[in-house]
Specification:
With 147 residues, this protein is α/β, with parallel strands linked by helices. The chain has 3 helices and 4 strands; from the N terminus they run ααββββα. The relative contact order is 0.13.
Length: 147
């Protein structure tokens, strides 16, 4: 094989490899845009939220926005009541009269134990150090909690 042919094949391989890498990156970009965890979970909540009734609490829901232009309270059309709990801080209590304060890593107030029919918690546990205590408190909020 001549030197010119080798150079030609190397350029062809290099250009082909660059094209393949660009195609792979484009596919990965499309896939990552198509599968967004929040959009998926919001879609599932919209789909299933209508079957839940009664008193609902959005634990650590801040201002209840779903980051798609809607509010989580609208995902539950058959609710009797809808309360948002928050914690202190920049993304904490909103000042809404219905907000309640809950620190999931501390003992739950007795008046909240077994108080809610549905306990909704979205994107909170990844911010908590004592996950066992937090999950225990989430369970205690439910009127289905068995001690």
């Amino acid at each position: 094989m001549g030197k010119t042919m080798k150079i030609f094949l190397m350029k062809l391989f290099k250009n082909g490899l660059v094209i393949i890498i660009r195609i792979i990156l484009k596919i990965l970009t499309i896939l990552s845009n198509e599968f967004n965890a929040r959009k998926w979970s919001n879609s599932e909540l919209r789909r299933w939220g209508k079957i839940f009734r009664g008193n609902i609490i959005n634990v650590s829901g801040w201002d209840d926005r779903d980051k798609e232009g809607g509010h989580y309270c609208d995902y539950f059309p058959n609710k009797s009541s809808y309360i948002i709990s928050n914690i202190a801080g920049s993304h904490g209590r909103t000042g809404n009269k219905d907000d309640i304060f809950i620190d999931l890593q501390k003992e739950l107030a007795q008046d909240l134990v077994k108080h809610f029919d549905v306990v909704f918690n979205h994107t909170t546990l990844e911010h908590i150090f004592d996950v066992k205590c937090a999950v225990n408190n989430l369970c205690k909020l439910s009127n289905l909690h068995y001690s």
